Amino acid sequence: MNKKILNILKVIGFIFIGAVLFWLVYKNQDFETIKQAVLKAKFEWLLLSMVLGLLSHYSRAARWKLLLKPLGYDVRKKTLFFSVMIMYLTNHAIPRSGEIVRCGVVNRYEKVPFSTLLGTVFTERVIDVIVLFILTVIVAATQFHVLIDFLNNNQAAQENLDKISNSLGIILAAFVIFVSMLILMFVFRKKIKQLGIYKKFQKLIEDFLEGLKSVLKLEKKWLFIAHTIFIWGMYFVMIYVVFFAFDFTSHLSVMAGLTIFVLSSFGIVIPSPGGIGTWHFIAIETLFVYGIEKDNGRAFAFAAHESQMIMLIVVGILSLLSTSLIKAKESKKIAEQQTEI
């Protein structure tokens, strides 16, 4: 089957899965009420939100380039941007699969070792988790009453916390097994080194560690920090500006916006396609604590999330097609050069 047709079919499949999941979230809701509220929204604010989201993704690609440069890979920024957008597109089908896909795209078109790319992505995610943790601490310190009300008003949230507490024993057991495996590997290291697969695995680990160390070799550390601040700043602002799209949320404060942004971010962290369902639930319930009726909260969540999803799908599809076209042009150029020779 033609590769272009196969890519198009994959994209259609992603969209279909996303549509089904979205329907499951809203199937029991008064969709007509939500529809009327969304139709009354000021769409210029939603458009601005989409633009801000796109800028954050471009900045993520630029930040990734800074990580790869000291490792000796001067990757084209457009390739990195396309791979980031394809990542978000893929995440709407299979949670967290996008990280692997974006490394695969850059590996295919720029010939950077996959394990090295994976190491830099892991470094990125560690930094992002640190930023989210800092923002969570700020919210917890300034909006503690909101967090308490959120938990008190949501039995499901409390049950999830109980499940996490009950899982500590399993986590501890898994840690013990992991440490035991490391000890066994150390004891039998001589025999393991004789295995044929050992050298290949060792090379993969070395490349991965090289990717992890990329942040220590940064030539432009302040620019990297600036991109990180910009990315998360845009993440927040692209949600906050949607407040002004509706009369019932336009009065909410910046701190209310930060609280909703931080708490709903955990809806993206939780493995679900593009945060569908989990993001909506947390955003709606947090808005309710701030006095926003749930039907209005659903309208806000619908507009804020789906405007971004539309942008990600459209730009993701264009990125997928663009990478295919670029590869086709490069292959044609190489073929022509070989013919001339």
What does this entry show, briefly?
The protein has a domain at 3-24 and 43-144 and 162-248 and 305-329. Helices cover 81% and strands 0% of the residues.
Main structural class: mainly alpha
Give the terminus-to-terminus CA distance: 31 Å
User: How much β-strand is present in the residues?
Assistant: under 5%
Which residues form runs of ≥5 with pLDDT under 50?
none
Q: Taking all residues together, what is the mean pLDDT?
A: 77
Largest sheet: none
Element order: H for helix, E for strand = HHHHHHHHHHHHHHH
> What is the alpha-carbon Rg in Å?
23 Å
Percentage of residues in helical conformation? over 70%
How many runs of DSSP E, i.e. beta strands? 0
By DSSP (H or I, 4+ residues per run), the number of helices equals 15
Overall geometric form: globular
Tell me the layout of helices and strands.
Elements: H1 3-26, H2 31-39, H3 43-68, H4 77-91, H5 97-110, H6 114-142, H7 144-152, H8 155-166, H9 168-187, H10 189-193, H11 196-212, H12 221-240, H13 254-269, H14 278-289, H15 294-340
Helix pairs in contact: 1-15, 2-15, 3-4, 3-12, 3-15, 4-5, 4-15, 5-6, 6-11, 6-13, 12-13, 13-14, 14-15
